[in-house]
Design a protein that fits this description.
- The chain has 71 residues and is an all-alpha fold.
- The chain has one domain.
- The protein is built from 2 helices and no strands.
- Helix 1 packs antiparallel against helix 2.
- The radius of gyration is 17 Å and the shape is elongated.
- 0% of the residues are buried.
- The mean pLDDT is 89.
């Protein structure tokens, strides 16, 4: 049972790290949108990337939520 908890802790650690990285990615896109000198195409590209990042965050948080419920 202790080994199972260790694997669970390891997998949770990976999920937390991935979530942190994706949060940082979303923040970078949000900060990029604050730049005044962006062209319309640049804004569109950044918004697309931000949308993808938000979708990824939704998926990651669902998985994390499932794991946390099992603890």
């Amino acid at each position: 049972m202790n080994e199972q908890n260790s694997v669970s802790a390891d997998s949770m650690s990976v999920l937390f790290e991935e979530l942190e990285q994706e949060c940082m990615t979303a923040i970078r896109y949000i900060e990029a949108l604050k730049l005044r000198e962006l062209s319309g195409d640049q804004k569109e590209d950044i918004l697309g990337e931000l949308s993808a990042s938000i979708t990824h965050l939704k998926i990651q948080t669902k998985e994390l939520d499932k794991r946390l419920e099992k603890l």
